[in-house]
Structure of FACT complex subunit POB3:
Amino acid sequence: MTAIESFDGIYLDLSKESGKCRFAETGFGWKPAGGGETFTLDRSNVGGAQWSRAAKGYEVRILHRNSGIIQLDGFQQADLERLTKVFKNWYSTVLENKEHALRGWNWGKADFSKAELTFNVQNKPALELPYSEIANTNLAGRNEVAIELSLPQDANDTGTAGQGGARGKGKKAGAGRDQLVEMRFYIPGTAAKKEKEAADGDEGGSDDAVEEQNAATLFYETLIEKAEIGEMAGDTIASFLDVLHLTPRGRFDIDMYEASFRLRGKTYDYKIQYDAIKKFMVLPKPDDMHCMLCIGLDPPLRQGQTRYPFVVMQFKKDEEVTIDLNIDESDLHSKYKDKLDAHYEEPLHHVVAKIFRGLGNKKISSPAKDFITLQGWP
């Protein structure tokens, strides 16, 4: 076997253009044919490999030990023998031959693996959904779970220099002409949930270790844990409970993190990156009792077929709050100097607006004090 095995016309993670893929004893690399940054993977990070039919011929799916699935599409049937030797001799990995389910059934079994959700029909995968591509999930009904997929902000906001790529976490599908944005699973009945803690030395307590739970709820909770969308990475910098929202309507708890914030309601949860915020506005209501904080988003929030380009919060003007931010003093001075304070004690809408401005690095617009409308309203 030669020291290097090369393959042309290979697409990395749904990339727009093909590139050249090279395998060596130390690992493999992929470079776009039109030029651009090279993607490489060390052999120590190869946790497994699968061979299957795909859109452009045959595909090799590499299971990264730490960060999900890497897809290489565009191989020919004749390449199987060479690739089998590559993975066996160089990476000590068996290239598993996977057949897809082609019956067209829309019912089957969902399996949660380390890096993706697999929907199997007669023990064959009908679809695979990487956790990194999942933006949010909600219980849409007693037996229904909705899954929202990540949306790139524009055509170039995906992967490697607009080519797609394994580094474009949550943005693989953005390289395609059409993109799936939501899926729904109907999951009836109940399922057994195993308790993590069992009584020490109590063999008779095995019956208590299994709990019957609504199957859709268990699916939802498992997906939140696997996709890491229930609790954001990092600590909560500030939280505000039971804040009234006019759009989308309801009361939500606001958890603010370093790069994103989360709205947690009784039915729906929303995870929003600060990069998606296009404008902030603080607007008084004519009743002189309330104030609204309006946040313009692109892409907008989705709830089924409904889009919400604005999040509108309503506060009482006279509602005061005292809060200490959960942030290290060193980070406060290095990252948020002149943007955030460690302690706030003032009206709630002022505090929320100032923290959004500091974390999101966005300007807040508000009416001028001396502005008078044509009708004479201040």
